[in-house]
């Protein structure tokens, strides 16, 4: 039996790293192939274009992220506490990345969404689908929170869930712009204000 080639995986993993740190326009097929140690001629055996590779990167990245989101939003504790756990994990992910690399790369999906907002329709559609899934996961959490009393019932809707996702993406973007994750310290308090009724004294 012949040895299974890992070239496709190497191309995808290399593209994921380069797209995350450099962006779509700044990275070409030749550089991806060089990073993956795959001949450029072999690239088109696996992917018809850089766009096709980018779509697979998005799908693979979100598949792993989706599992992590579901894990952190699951459990027996009140839903607001589970949402806080997700937020704190997302913040810690950015901090750990900065400690490891000395920079803040932000969110791969968010970075691509900003860069490709008016181009690459197929990529846009994949990104939209991923963000829609994020909002649906948060919406399910808010619905459970309305039932257990940890989330205000009037905020347990899809519009609020989308606002939570937007709050996360915006906060990560600003932290990346500033090169400082300390601004993320306030992310959960801000999200909490979106989904709970202020206590009355």
Automatic annotation (TrEMBL):
Residues 5-65 form the HTH tetR-type domain. It comes from Actinoplanes missouriensis (strain ATCC 14538 / DSM 43046 / CBS 188.64 / JCM 3121 / NBRC 102363 / NCIMB 12654 / NRRL B-3342 / UNCC 431). One of its GO terms (molecular function) is DNA binding. This is Putative TetR-family transcriptional regulator. Keywords: DNA-binding, Transcription, Transcription regulation. PANTHER family: HTH-TYPE TRANSCRIPTIONAL REGULATOR YJDC, TRANSCRIPTIONAL REGULATORY PROTEIN. Residues 28-47 bind DNA. Signal peptide: none annotated.
